[in-house]
Structure formats: structure tokens, C-alpha cells
UniProtKB/TrEMBL annotation:
GO terms for cellular component: membrane. This is MAM domain-containing protein. InterPro entries: ConA-like_dom_sf (IPR013320), MAM_dom (IPR000998), MAM_domain-containing (IPR051560). Coiled coil: none annotated. It comes from Pterocles gutturalis (yellow-throated sandgrouse). It holds the Pfam family MAM.
Length: 168
């Protein structure tokens, strides 16, 4: 009666990876290579999540894994309009030299993925935050694509706390 449950449903969807994936990301949409881990896992950087918590979880793609490239695909989102814009905020880590993270958009009627955001390692080795705003007149999916281009130890791409606004 107080509409409190409806307000929670309209809030942002957050993937913090603490227990599993959120509703926007399902296990079948995560390619092998991404590992859910924390800073205590003894697998090289990052040694904590973006808040500095070494026991908090995030997704990581390591150069030591057989697959040095992997995607993370969202469920299908409905078209956006002027009132309902999809805003995605996330934290990411790209190690020193050879990591790249690309975010792409795949419209339902197209086979191609359009890159809408990208960052590469340039002596970064730190968590950064980014926000992407998506306008689409048709159903779409968002794809996070991580790549580590060398087999050197401690080269990593990681992603943490993906938040999808109400318009997604």
C-alpha cells in the first residue's frame, strides 16, 4: 500500500559480484576467461575491489589464463526513449601495458557490435570509473570485452560494480 516495493523495483540494478551475477548478467552470458575473485585470491593485481576492500569480489581476466580475451554480455534491454535513458556506470582496472576493455552495443536487428567506449593500459594499474549513456530505438545488448595481449605475469583486466539505471 505504501508503494515501497515498487520503488525498489524501479531502482538501479547493480552487479557487485559479491554472491553471483545480477539479473542483467546471466552465467550463460559470461565467456570462459572471466573469473569471479577477490584480492585475497593470490592471483596478482588488483589486490582489492575499487573501494580498497581485499575480500570484496570483482570479475577479472588474467594473462595467465588460457583465454586472454572474453566477453560479458547483458540480457536484452528494451528501446530507450527521452524519459528512459539507459545509463551504465562501472569500475574497471587495466594493468600496466597490454590490457584493453571495450564496451559495445548490439542492436537486436544487427549482427554487428558497435564499439561505444574503450580504454587501454598505459601504466594505469589502478581502478577507474566510467559512465556510458545509451540511446537505442530498438532492443539491444551491451557487451563488455576484455583482452590481455601478453602472457606476462600480473597483466589483468578487471571490472567491478556495474550499475544499470532504471532506463536500461
Amino acid at each position: 500500500g505504501g508503494n515501497s516495493d515498487e520503488k525498489q523495483d524501479s531502482a538501479c540494478e547493480k552487479c557487485d559480484f559479491e554472491t553471483a551475477l545480477c539479473k542483467a548478467l546471466h552465467e550463460s552470458n559470461v565467456q570462459p576467461g572471466w573469473m569471479r575473485r577477490n584480492g585475497q585470491s593470490d592471483m596478482g593485481p588488483p589486490y582489492s575491489d575499487h573501494n580498497g576492500n581485499d575480500s570484496a569480489y570483482f570479475l577479472s581476466l588474467s594473462s595467465e589464463m588460457p583465454s586472454s580475451s572474453a566477453t560479458l554480455r547483458t540480457n536484452v534491454f528494451l528501446p530507450t526513449d527521452e524519459e528512459h535513458v539507459c545509463q551504465i556506470t562501472f569500475h574497471y582496472w587495466i594493468s600496466q601495458t597490454s590490457g584493453t576493455l571495450i564496451v559495445g552495443l548490439q542492436k537486436h536487428s544487427e549482427d554487428t557490435i558497435t564499439n561505444i567506449w574503450q580504454d587501454s593500459g598505459e601504466l594505469q594499474n589502478q581502478w577507474k570509473a566510467s559512465t556510458i549513456i545509451i540511446h537505442s530505438t530498438e532492443k539491444y545488448e551491451v557487451i563488455f570485452w576484455g583482452m590481455v595481449e601478453t602472457q606476462r605475469q600480473d597483466e589483468t583486466v578487471a571490472i567491478d560494480d556495474i550499475t544499470f539505471s532504471e532506463g536500461c
